[in-house]
Design a protein that fits this description.
The structure is a single chain. The protein is an alpha+beta fold. It folds into two domains: 70 residues, Rossmann fold (3-Layer(aba) Sandwich); 95 residues, Arc Repressor Mutant, subunit A. The protein is built from six helices and eight strands. Helix 4 crosses helix 5 and helix 4 packs across helix 6. The relative contact order is 0.11.
Length: 181
């Protein structure tokens, strides 16, 4: 945490924003508030000095196991996606990474596409914001859950006839979102 130019918290924030890698903070700062801040900023683990090399290696191996399991789950989820989802005039093609509405290709950001494809491949199933963050943005996304709300709003503006009264991307109050055909 105590680095010369950027502090460890800022490094953690930047890493988490730019990539999905395991982050272990190893520091002399032992206060509970420092541990909580580090973990809330996206660190996967937090160790204080002095430490045992065996414990450090065990924690690193555990983080790598979790990362590998998450990669396998994501890969299995992508393989399980149908090759084409068609609902009325809306067509989602995961193999071409393309969405079209009434034959016109929509301009979606990669995250908008991933979110729509995930929800559409699980029609009728309700997902919490936290779950969507984990599945679409990658585990331990450091941003807030309102990111999901914003992306849903953008998607509604692009795919719904009347975004104020959506037919496909529905809110389940107090729970999350679902896709209906």
């Amino acid at each position: 945490i105590m680095l010369p130019k950027l502090d460890g918290f800022e490094v953690c924030r930047i890493l988490r924003r730019e990539m999905t890698v395991p982050i272990l903070m190893l520091t002399a700062k032992t206060e509970e508030i420092d541990k909580v801040v580090g973990l809330e900023l996206g660190a996967d683990d937090y160790m204080t000095k002095p430490f045992s090399v065996r414990e450090l290696l065990a924690r690193i191996r555990a983080m790598l196991r979790r990362t590998e399991m998450m990669k396998q789950e994501i890969a299995a989820s992508k393989e399980a996606q149908p090759s084409l989802v068609k609902v009325g005039s809306l067509e989602i093609d995961p193999t071409r990474h393309q969405v079209s509405l009434s034959g016109s290709v929509l301009d979606l950001s990669p995250k908008e596409f991933d979110l729509l494809a995930f929800l559409a491949s699980n029609p009728g199933r309700v997902f919490s914001r936290d779950y969507l963050l984990e599945r679409v943005w990658g585990y331990d996304y450091a941003g807030g859950t309102r990111t999901v709300d914003v992306h849903i709003r953008w998607l509604r503006q692009k795919i719904e006839v009347d975004p104020a009264h959506p037919r496909h991307l529905l809110t389940v109050r107090g729970v999350g979102y679902k896709f209906e055909g």
